[in-house]
Design brief:
551 residues; 4 strands; two-stranded antiparallel sheet
């Protein structure tokens, strides 16, 4: 990684070390005067250290227990999950750190090899990379205990190769997706696919847990041996092979890992250059049809013609358009639709598809969906970025601003609430429970709106201005995770009275759930908009500075 290359001018040598120093300097500048960023970074570092400790003991368990048989199973399956996690999680949940945005280097005389090598080295300087490195050292301990220092040394090389493979895979996939997502049709298709992948994570976990309970360990060893010869498991099992007497397998598996990593870096290199060029080669933009009508008519589409022609109506129309046209917002809506329909069915249908007829469980599942539905609003101002300056200049009242944002979001979510409530009640064979499902969901949705509007004012963070929709600024991944967890916990606490009513009132609650839940949700949303609006009026300049990306 320290190989230096000469730039196009030939006057100065640029090495990967300079990219690492540049990333550290940019991170330091981003943290300057931002105590909340420092706190989130420290929190993320402690979270990464905790996960690394857990992973270390899981990987070291076969060696500490002297279990030579299961060492290859843990190494192959655990290492394969690490690689898959680096492939999928940046796309679905956490994004990828773009402290050094490749587009910034487009006009500099740097060769493709220099740029790829430098950005690859800079990507290794991150909390996830350090956490994976610390966790996978448990494999070194296992190999050393089972096969001595030759196995431990070989596994140390494999661990480093595995870490490089994880980073290369994440960068190649996210960069390639960012290039493909320039097409709106591809963006929509990708949003559906990624939302489906996110929805399948929970059932896959449940299926995996059930499979482990009834697993045939002899067959599992065979499966792990096969995975060990794929790029997913090859780097993590080289030391175990040496410990078990298969010394010849180590160089072959390292060669597999190296070839895979070279292929990924080549793929990243091609998509990276395309991302830097941007839309230069995308062809001539299609001609737009001539606009008809006044500016007000164009702002209010026909479907929203019933909105009042005032500041509130204009804000609702604007937000409704953005929720449909912004790829990041639209992906959240698709994820909500997939998860909101799938999870309640999975939670309320027992083994063999037998419906569970517990009103309390149905209530809890609806609460989970309602909490999840509003979590995306925890950083709703971050989607606006510097465009929020127009609202500050126009001196939009905070309460009007937040109520309009709630109304625009509800235009998409409330019909989904009706669909989820009806579908779940029919699948349970309880059509009379539509009021229970809808009331619980409306109450949680309203409480979630109240909680997340306040969080969006106090805990907003900026999103980078880049062609990569998966990119996040330094510390933003931790902020996104922390805000999501805080949002769901606070929203769940806010609807405890609904859970208590379902448990205490019994069948009476089936009749009261819909009116009480609707009133509870509406009252909570209006109260939240009023309280958070007062805070927004005082924090407009600070909020604008927070969500404006730093160049």
């Amino acid at each position: 990684m320290a190989v230096a290359v000469t730039d196009a001018a030939g006057a100065r040598r640029v090495s990967a070390r300079q990219f690492v120093r540049l990333k550290l300097r940019v991170m330091g500048n981003n943290f300057r005067g931002q105590s909340w960023r420092i706190a989130l970074f420290v929190l993320g570092a402690f979270g990464g250290l905790w996960l690394a400790t857990v992973g270390f003991f899981l990987f070291a368990a076969p060696g500490l227990g002297g279990s030579d048989r299961y060492a290859s199973v843990v190494a192959a399956l655990g290492g394969g999950l690490l690689v898959l996690g680096w492939l999928l999680l940046p796309l679905i949940f956490f994004g990828v750190d773009e402290t050094l945005d490749p587009a910034r280097f487009a006009l500099l005389p740097l060769s493709r090899r220099t740029l790829v090598t430098g950005l690859f080295a800079a990507a290794l300087v991150s909390v996830p990379a350090v956490a994976v490195l610390l966790a996978s050292t448990g494999l070194i301990l296992t190999a050393g205990l089972l096969g001595g220092w030759p196995a431990a040394l070989t596994q140390a090389v494999g661990v480093l190769a595995g870490l490089l493979l994880c980073v290369a895979a994440a960068r190649a996939v996210t960069s390639a997706f960012a290039t493909m997502l320039r097409s709106r049709r591809v963006r929509d298709l990708a949003a559906v696919l990624l939302a489906g992948a996110a929805a399948l994570i929970a059932p896959v976990q449940l299926a995996a847990a059930a499979a482990l309970r009834d697993a045939d360990w002899d067959r599992l060893v065979s499966v792990a041996a096969m995975i060990g010869w794929t790029p997913l498991g090859a780097p993590w099992t080289v030391g175990i092979d040496v410990a078990q007497g298969r010394v010849w397998a180590a160089p072959v598996k390292l060669l597999i890992t190296t070839l895979t990593m070279v292929a990924l870096l080549a793929w990243w290199s091609r998509s990276l250059e395309s991302a830097m060029v941007g839309m230069a080669n995308s062809g001539r933009a299609p001609a737009r049809p001539e606009a008809t009508g006044t500016a007000v008519t164009q702002l209010f589409p026909r479907a929203l013609g019933w909105l009042p022609r005032d500041r509130f109506g204009a804000l609702v129309a604007r937000e409704a358009r953005y929720w449909w046209r912004d790829a990041r917002r639209r992906a959240n809506l698709i994820t909500l639709a997939v998860v909101g329909l799938f999870l309640p069915v999975m939670l309320n249908l027992g083994g063999g598809g037998v419906p569970n007829s517990s009103p309390v469980l149905v209530n809890l599942s609806m609460i989970f969906v309602g909490v999840l539905a509003t979590a995306t609003l925890a950083n709703q101002f971050g989607f606006d970025g510097s465009a929020y300056a127009a609202h500050v200049v126009a001196d939009v009242p905070g309460t009007v601003e937040l109520r309009a944002r709630m109304a625009a979001f509800s235009l998409y979510v409330l019909p989904l609430v009706v669909v989820i409530s009806v579908v779940l009640a029919l699948l349970l064979g309880k059509p009379g429970w539509v009021g229970l499902t809808a009331g619980s969901l409306l109450a949680t949705y309203g409480a979630g709106l109240a909680v997340n509007t306040l969080l969006s004012v106090l805990g907003a963070y900026s999103l980078p201005e880049t062609s990569n929709p998966f990119a996040l600024n330094s510390g933003a991944g931790v902020a996104r995770s922390f805000l999501g967890i805080l949002s769901m916990l606070a929203s769940a606490v806010a609807v405890i009275p609904m859970v208590a009513a379902a448990a205490l009132l019994g069948d009476v609650w089936l009749w009261l759930a819909l009116p009480v839940g609707a009133a509870y949700g509406l009252g909570a949303a209006l109260l939240g908009a009023y309280l958070a609006g007062d805070v927004l009026d005082r924090r407009q300049p600070e909020l604008l500075a927070t969500v404006t990306p730093r160049r």
